[in-house]
Amino acid sequence: MKSILYTILFFFLVNFSYTQCLSGDCNNGYGVFKYDNGTYEGYFQDSKITGKGTYNWNNGYKYIGDFIENKRTGKGKYYLSEEYTGHIYEGDFKDNHATGQGKYIYPNGDQFEGSFVDMKFNGWGTYFFFDLNRKFIGNWVNSKRTGIGRYLFSDGGYSDEAYYENDEFKYYIPNSTTSNSTTTSNTNNQSNSTVTDIDGNSYKTVNLGGTIWMAENLRVTRYNDGAEIPFEKGGGNDRNYGAYMYPDLVQNISIETIIKEDGYLYNGYVIKQGNVCPQGFRLPTKIDLENFWNKYVGDEWTPNFALYKKIKTYEAPFTIKTGGFYSVKTVYCSNCSYWTEKQKQNNPCSTCKNKRSWTEQGEFRPEVTYNRTATYHTGFGKGTDEYGIALGLTGHYSASNREVTSGSGIWSNTLDYWSSNSTGIKAFYGLYIKSDLTINKPDSLSASDYFSIRCIKE
Hints:
Elements (H helix, E strand, L loop, with lengths): L19 E5 L5 E6 L2 E8 L2 E10 L4 E7 L2 E9 L8 E6 L6 E6 L5 E7 L2 E10 L4 E8 L2 E10 L8 E4 L2 E5 L21 E3 L5 E7 L2 E4 L29 E2 L9 H8 L2 E3 H6 L7 E2 L3 H11 L15 E11 L2 E8 L8 H5 L11 E9 L2 E11 L17 E3 L4 E3 L2 E11 L7 E8 L5 E8 L3 E2 L4 E2 L1
Antiparallel strand pairs: 1-2, 2-3, 3-4, 4-5, 5-6, 6-7, 7-8, 8-9, 9-10, 10-11, 11-12, 12-13, 13-14, 15-16, 16-17, 18-19, 19-30, 20-31, 21-24, 22-23, 25-26, 27-28, 28-29
């Protein structure tokens, strides 16, 4: 979220060290008056700026609005300059301070409307994102989201209500609606709702623009008709049936912990089978992914950290023991027959009878115990999860490389190409999340590779 400019009071003050009435009545009427730092044109009363007028500073700043006894008080419009050229504040002023109800406009079209104190967002207000077709409505303190708020989208959908502190998302608020000067209905919101798969796993859901998404990766081991999905330990590019496998595991961290956070990875043959989502949910189509991308990503070169879950760290202590045994040393020698008598007397090879090497017991190595901690990170350091979709960096299994590698993906059920040849290309469309957290528009994913599944409500 952009921080608002706080212009120092200097630019709000009128400098009276040099006074000259250029034209009109500068005592009790309408006139033009020149000051050291700018020029005023407007109304005067008792030789003081009072009424409506315009003050142009020499450095490019400009104020149009109400004055009372040389102070900006009432309604006004303030045009900023220098490094803030193109920024505009319009609204209430009191004793030269932008305080009260107002609007702040950025050069890129973004706007904030709401309560101000000294030109900072303070109180209830709405921030409009011009290029993302969404807005945030909620409480602010010193231009930072602090308190209750939520995102609203151009198609009428909205995110779950959440609590923020110092511009950071903290947690979602169950069963509540945002209200203040603006009230938002909660007609189709799935706030804090869950869905359960055939294995009994429960998943959080989130409403994104009227579409209910699972907010976690699928971790089911059966199709929803009860048929088993084969587990593949090593994957491979020669599988012609649906299968799932583990994501990248971390030694000494429980598999259950990792699967709960990252879900399983599934190949494209599971997508071809189709019935893998919980009852009432389905696989997304390419159009679903494109709508998601256009609304919440919009630029494949710039990460949108609001899509990614906040980083979470799991730690597991473990011990390593070494020693408690005698070492073994190997004695090497060349043909003894070529040695001098002195060499034979001072070297084990004097008795080797032409052997090249043999082993002997070495020194005793005492047992030593080391305490270690295994660490597993999920999410991302800059992730805020403001949308609640909680994307992560699960990785994917590359069949050609035969390993889980960087880059994550989400399958759609829209077929790209399916060769009748057993070795031909077989692919579905999907989203590809790169390791730098940028997201490609829906593109082809090989059915031999293993990616994540997110289901949406039918």
